[in-house]
Structure formats: C-alpha cells, structure tokens
Amino acid sequence: MSTAALTPAKTAPGGSTAVRDSLTMLRRNLKHMQRYPAMTISILVMPLLFLLLFVYVFGGAIGTGTLGPGTTRDDYINYLVPGIIVMTATSGAVATAVSVCTDKTEGIINRFRTMSISRGAMLSGHVLGSTIQVTAVLALITGVAVAIGFRPNASVVEWLAAAGLLIFLALGLSWLCAGMGMNAKTVESASNGPLPLTLLPLMGSAVVDPDSMPAGLRWFAEYQPFTPINETVRGLLMGGEIGNNGLIALAWCAGLALFGYWWALRAYNKTVKR
Amino acid sequence: MSTSNAAPAAITAIGLRKSYGDKVVLDGIDLTIPEGSIFALLGPNGAGKTTTVEILSTLIAADGGEAQIAGYDMVRQAAKVRRSIGVTGQFSAVDNLLTAEENLMLMADLSHLPKAEGKRRSAHLLERFDLTEAAHKTAATFSGGMRRKLDLAMTLVSSPGIIFLDEPTTGLDPRSRRIMWELIRDLVGQGTTIFLTTQYLEEADQLADRIALLDHGRLVAEGTAEELKRRIPGGHVRLQFSDAAELDTAAGLFGVANKDEESLTLQIPSDGSVANLRAVLDVLDTTGVTAESLTVHTPDLDDVFLTLTGKPAQDTTPQKESAR
C-alpha cells in the first residue's frame, strides 16, 4: 500500500480494526469505572433499594393483593425478583448516557474523530463497558435476592437463557442511551433522558399484576416493552407460561439496539458540530 | 520518508467556503503549504481560523472548495487523511480520568502500535515534555500548561507527518507559551509540517515560515513575516497626548491613523525616516497641537494588520467565533 510510507506503524482499516479499536475503548471505559466507582455504586443502589423496599416494606400488603389471599412474603419474593432483575438491567442506562455525553462535550471526541479509528469504536467501548458493568450488578442483585429467600426453580439452560436475555436487554438499552448521550446538549439533560426507562418496568408486570391497574394503564402495561421481557424472565426462572413473550422480548431488545446504534452513530458522524 | 506520491505540498486548498446559516465564515480560502514547514494562519477571533482547521482535519465538511492533505482528497479519502494528520484543538482533548501515561498509551493503541513500541514512545514523550513526574497522575489534576503539553504529546504518539495546532498557546502563561514554542520548533526539525492558528502576532512571527492573515473569512495577505512587513512602508510613530481634545484634533490632521482613546495615543504609519518624522512634527507645529512624547516603532505584524485590514488585530475580539 502506498499510504504505508507516510505512517509506517499503522495497519490498514478493516473489520479487525473495528474490533481492536472497540476493545481499546472498552479498556478505557473499564478504567473509568475503576477510577470513578461512584457510578457503579449508584447503579447497584437503586435496584437493591427497590428489592428491599418491595420485599420488606410493601411486600406483605402487595403480595396478598397480587397473588391472592393466603400468600406469604416468600411467595411474593418469587413473583417480585424477576421484575427487580429486569429493572436492574435498566439501571446502567443513566450511566451510559452520562459517560457518552461527557465524551461528547469534552474535546476528546474531536480527537477521536480526526484519528483513523473505526467510527463506532468509541460508542461500542461505552456500550460494552456498560453492559459488563450491568452484568456484574445483575449477578450481585440475584445473589442478594437468593440470600433473602428467592427460590427459583430454573434449570441451567433456563438460567442461561434468562441471563442471555437480560444481557441483551442491557446491551439494547445501552445503545439507546448512547444515542441519547450523543444527541443531548448537556450532561445534565443526558442524565435525565434515561430516567423514564428505569421506571418503565414499574408500569408493567415488574412488581404487581397489571390486571389490578386501571384500564388505560393496564393497556399500556400490556404493550410496553418491559412486560413481555418481565414475563419471559419470570417464566424462565419460576416456570410458567412464556408463550410468544420470548420472541417479543427479543424483538424489543434487538430493536432498541439497532435504533440506538443508528441514532448514536449518526450523531458521531455528523459533520456539523452541536 | 519514501512516499511514492511525494508532493511538494503537504496541504493544498482551493476555494474553501463555509457558512453557518446567513453567516459566511470562510469565503474562498486558497492555501499551499510545503512539506516540513510551519504555516501560521493569523487572525482575530471570529476570523474563521478554527473552521479552517476543522475542515482540513476532516472534522466538518466545507460547503465548497477542495483540499488535498498529504496528497489525499479530504472528502473522498478522509480515512487516509486521518492517518496522516494529528490535531491538537483549541479545547483540551485529554481523558481526565486517565493518567498522562494512560492517555498516551490510549493513543498508541488506537494508532495500532505494537505494545512495546507504544510504551517506548510514551516514555520518550513524557520525558521530552517534562511530564515524567506526572506520568501516573490523572489529567484532571493537571495545570493548564501541563494539559496542553499532554494534549500535544498525545497528538505526536502516532508520529503524524502533518500536525494541526489550533491556538496552541491561548490561555497559557508566558513561561508555558515559550515551552510550547520550543516543542513546536523541534517538531519541524524532524520534517513535520505544522499548520498553526494563532491570534498572537508575536507567535506567528516567532514560529512560522509563512503567515497568512485571515480576516472575515478571507485571506488578506500571505507571505513570510519579512515579506509581510515589507508590504507596509514602515512602522509607525506613536504620539502621546495629555488630553482627549488634543488627541482628537491631531487625529483629524493625519489621514491614516489609529487613535487609542484610553492611552491617549495616536499611531501614524511611518517608514521611520528623518524626513517622515520631520513632516509629522511640522504638521503638529503649524497647527499648534502639542504632543507629550513621540516614539518611533519599527514595523511588526501588528502594523501589517493595521494597514491591510484597517484595524488593529487585537482590538477586534468581541464577537466569539460563532461556528461553535
């Protein structure tokens, strides 16, 4: 290649470069998490708080309302935990939007843009980092849930399927939030954008049966993305009917990921600043 | 460097145009910058310097015009252009949460250097930029001068043949500025081409082989510092007055003159010859205007700016570059 003479140390661009650059960016973001653990802790605190709140504070009352008379707190834990785990998968969303927007508003993104690196690498690094972070938090929350009485009856395959779906969800949400971060004007507005996402599971089947909701909200609960995801995770971990919820859940995750990827990359490649 | 498409020019641009809405930022810029030279684009804030750098470094698209960077078309071969250039922008582009060394290693990894080579270059740059002590501190703790040095060091990791420096010393204290100047001079010694923007006439005068003056999106003059100075008849004489009334009267007597109400001084273009001085004094004598003192100023780039744009370079700073 004639261009090699100008910059002898560099390799030609191609598929392998995209992976290599993304991994370099991933290492960068993992270092950020290590340097700035406050973000990881805040990701962990929210679902942990919800878990304890719903089990010990509301659990007695809600449990009877949701699962019928005669149910115990332990029965409710088994209903609640899959929902809390899905909420946990959304907890990394704010962090992704904030870290992407921070890169965008600081000068470093323009350095990356003028370098010969794969165009999606910076964003992939954020998304992969956030997905790994959320996966770790998911494991921790599941551990705590088991410790306070969650008794799933899932087989290894069902566990793996649930984990796969949750990680896929975290990935999809991460891409969506990378898009939000890239398209937000300030870090503050980037941190507000994903908030509804983390509350959306509550307006579905995460902590109560949507049948107990008023008609309008019940209709919303039925069709919003988190209900089929909730139902799939609950079905995998606790047994019970999954039906076509599994496919709908996968479609939502894929849709979120594809839309977020397109939205974020479009902003990265945008030639006019801000 | 043994490149098959070795062009004598590292950067050529023809008719670059850019507008943001109704505001024309660049109104047809032509440039030719030879390899291994320092080129300074000099102009006040809002003249279009940053926009020019952003276009040539593939960050934004021009509305019109063409440019070749290292022999590659900036639009059709943007990826190849990016492999040949390094950019240090006006706003620090370092990762605040990483240490100096990690920032440099990040650049090495993104440049696809082998690990050992990346380490070697990082260590070398840390030493050369006097950052060895700060190697393991996060950039967030750095002073402005240190950040700017790290920023430039990061640009150098991939040994780019062409480096864009957008106002590399703006906001630095005089000592840090001199250190940056030394570092920039060293680079050219190694054959690197440097495209520098600055609003400091002294900086362009100190560093650049060739200087172009940018004003309201147009190049109003181009040449070496010497050539530019030659384009004006000479420097100026500076008359100091004791009150504003005397200053106003005197300003009316001389055609081309730059009045400074605050310091009560009047600058009159002059070649510094005895005849010229006598003429100035004669005008004052015959009209009875009293000047406190007179100083003769040998030509510098400020005078070039005054003559070519009709206003001094540093007094035109109020509007911020609207391109941002």
UniProtKB/TrEMBL annotation, chain A:
Domain ABC transmembrane type-2 residue range list: 38-271
Compartments, record wording: Cell membrane; Membrane
Keywords: Antibiotic resistance, Cell membrane, Membrane, Transmembrane, Transmembrane helix, Transport
Transmembrane feature ranges: 36-59, 79-102, 123-150, 156-178, 246-265
Highest taxon of the lineage: Bacteria
Bilayer topology term: Multi-pass membrane protein
A Pfam family per the record: ABC2_membrane
InterPro entries xref list: ABC2_TM, ABC2_TM_bact-type, ABC_2_transport, Nod_factor_ABC_transporter
UniProt family annotation: Belongs to the ABC-2 integral membrane protein family.
Protein name: Transport permease protein
Origin species: Streptomyces polyasparticus
Automatic annotation (TrEMBL), chain B:
Organism of provenance: Streptomyces polyasparticus
Protein name as catalogued: ATP-binding cassette domain-containing protein
Keyword Nucleotide-binding: yes
Domain of life where this protein originates: Bacteria
Main location: membrane
Gene3D superfamilies, sorted: P-loop containing nucleotide triphosphate hydrolases (3.40.50.300)
Location relative to the cell: Cell membrane
Any one Gene Ontology molecular-function term assigned to this protein's record: ATP binding
Family indicated by similarity: Belongs to the ABC transporter superfamily. Drug exporter-1 (DrugE1) (TC 3.A.1.105) family.
Keyword Translocase appears in the UniProt entry: yes
Ranges of residues in domain ABC transporter: 11-241
InterPro entries: AAA+_ATPase, ABC_transporter-like_ATP-bd, ABC_transporter-like_CS, ABC_transporter_ATP-binding, DrrA, DrrA1/2-like_C, P-loop_NTPase
